[in-house]
Specification:
Elements (H helix, E strand, L loop, with lengths): L2 H18 L1 H10 L5 H6 L1 H23 L9 H19 L1 H11 L4 H19 L15 H16 L1 H6 L10 H7 L12 H25 L4 H12 L17 H14 L3 H8 L4 H5 L1 H24 L4 H5 L9 H14 L3 H16 L14 H10 L15 H19 L8 E2 L2 E2 L2 H25 L6 H12 L20 H15 L3 H6 L8
Antiparallel strand pairs: 1-2
Length: 533
């Protein structure tokens, strides 16, 4: 492996990160403009951003100076190493503003407090970059605007991929790399739109930005201010789920906002190549793309089933829900009032349909926004949503999870093997949309799904060491590995991850990265032999 080119490009990424951090710093000044330099020094939010910018630019400049190379990026190892190192390093740099704020506001500078605040800062930012949306914050609205904007912006950058964004710039720096693109773009295929990879990256980001602009404008029409509109759009288009409100989208209690976000969550779970072709007037994929049909059908069927169960059965009795594990359960009277409010949301057929459609789309696309506390829904609904956390959006979307195309392949492989049991000599190539798949692709997809499930089981085993509730342990791993955020019981839609012990949080951070970079990139980087020549 050519380590010089790896650290050279990593340095360039750090410098880009430094430039990006200027934006949330500017937002911090807009909402709280200091009168003098002394007030800036005393402001943990602004100081944190300034330190993060200095570290990013300084380390990036040093790395590029010490490792400058005239060679082009060509190797597979180098491409995957850059993605693994880039995401890890940028997450640590991006956590500096939150670390500064958490540490100063806590007022406790003991070693234990430093470790805890550093862990929490890293958890929040890696959750942002990986578009997971899991949060350790209990009072989101008390956080300064600059930090709230930064955590939402990390969603938007991580959704399409900050390295993919940088690839439009890299050719001017004498660097190219299909393997960086391959290591970061979600899904089993990395189809190009244009012969030059930089053009493909630019087109994907152009479509992403156009949809972002459209949703932001529509949310502003619904009554959100520009700040909340932009932050919630970042969370929607990246299928992330960070909100600027304690009650997430449900706090607005708006039909219009719910449906706008539901529609754009659906768009975000669609392969962005399809969006590009539709915008150019080519609607072929809408009628012929089997993955798109499977994805849409899954959302529609799930919505219908959830609507029927919620309307006819209602929520679970309050005493049953109260028995579910919560780290800090509210008083029973307060909890019963919460249950009554949630029951009222689904008491009509339209109400059940509205909230079912939103939550089904939020979970299947791995966005994780909430308009209702689905942890109070009947166990059938809760298990169905937990199961669908693994599925995710389409390949080439910003959604997490296994991806719909892989689910389709696994189902078809299982069906084919059933036929072969009674017809051993049957030769039946696996087809998706009438097109035969290469057997190496089928084996690769099957191996990925198996490795995903093994990682999930290993994660649950580890989390049971730190969480005294099995369902919560299962939900934390499913919600982080599939990049969703909210889960069940102790991490339900109205709970947070702040109470989980430090070692447990670091396990979940690793799971977030494994899920976002689709296992292989991080697992390869963890092998010592990977870094040898």
């Amino acid at each position: 492996m050519d380590k010089k080119i790896v650290f050279y490009i990593a340095g360039r990424l750090m410098m880009i990160m430094g430039a990006i951090l200027i934006v949330p710093l500017a937002i911090a000044f807009v909402y709280n403009c200091p009168n003098n330099i002394g007030e800036i020094v005393d402001d943990a939010e602004k100081t944190g951003f300034i330190l993060a910018i200095l570290f990013s630019v300084g380390l990036g400049f040093l790395a590029t100076r010490l490792t400058r190379s005239e060679r082009k990026l060509e190797g597979i190892k180098e491409g995957f190493a850059i993605v693994a190192l880039g995401w890890t390093g940028l997450g640590l740099l991006g956590a500096i503003p939150f670390f500064s704020y958490f540490l100063v506001t806590s007022g406790d500078y003991s070693m234990g407090s430093i470790i805890l605040t550093f862990t929490d800062a890293c958890f929040e930012i890696y959750s942002g970059f990986t578009t997971t949306g899991a949060s350790i914050l209990s009072d989101i609205e008390s956080i300064p605007k600059g930090l709230l904007f930064w955590r939402s912006l990390t969603h938007w950058l991580g959704g399409m991929g900050i390295i993919t964004l940088a690839m439009a710039i890299f050719p001017a720096m004498g660097v190219s790399g299909y393997h960086m693109f391959r290591g970061e773009v979600p899904g089993p295929t990395t189809e190009r739109i244009q012969p030059r990879l930089a053009q493909t990256a630019a087109i994907l980001w152009g479509v992403y930005a156009l949809l972002t602009l459209a949703e932001t404008i529509l949310l502003m029409f619904g009554g959100m201010d520009w700040f909340d509109s932009l932050c919630h759009t970042f969370g929607t288009m990246a299928t992330g789920g960070f909100s600027t409100k304690n009650g997430s989208i449900g706090q607005y209690n708006s039909n219009y906002i719910d449906w706008v976000i539901t529609i754009f969550m659906y768009f975000a779970g669609v392969n962005f190549l399809i969006h590009y072709r539709v915008l150019r007037g080519n609607f072929t994929d809408i009628f012929k793309n089997r993955e798109l049909h499977f994805y849409t059908g899954t959302i529609v069927i799930t919505t219908i089933i959830l609507t029927g169960i919620l309307y006819f059965a209602g929520l679970k009795p309050a005493h049953q829900s109260a028995e579910q594990f919560r780290f800090d359960p509210p008083p029973m009277q307060e909890f019963q009032q919460h249950v009554a409010e949630e029951a009222d949301k689904v008491s009509t057929l339209y109400g059940a349909f509205r909230h079912s459609a939103f939550q089904a789309t939020a979970i299947i696309t791995t966005t994780g926004y909430g308009t209702a506390d689905f942890d109070l829904w009947p166990d059938f609904c809760r298990f169905a949503l937990l199961f669908l956390m693994f599925w995710g959006g389409c390949a080439g979307s910003t959604g997490g999870g296994i991806k719909m195309i892989r689910i389709m392949v696994v189902f078809k492989v299982g069906w084919r093997e059933l036929h072969k049991m009674v017809r051993p000599h049957l030769v039946a190539p696996l087809k998706i949309g009438g097109i035969s798949m290469d057997e190496r692709q089928v084996i690769g997809i099957s191996a990925f799904v198996l490795l995903f499930l093994v990682t999930f089981i290993a994660g649950v085993l580890l989390m049971t060491l730190f969480i005294p509730d099995l369902i919560t342990s299962i939900a934390t791993v499913a919600a982080t590995l599939a990049n969703i955020g909210p889960g069940l019981n102790g991490i339900g839609s109205v709970e947070n991850y702040g109470w989980i012990p430090v070692p447990g949080k670091w396990i979940l951070i690793v799971l977030m990265l494994l899920g976002r970079l689709e296992l292989f990139t991080i697992l390869l980087a963890l092998r010592p032999s990977f870094w040898k020549r």
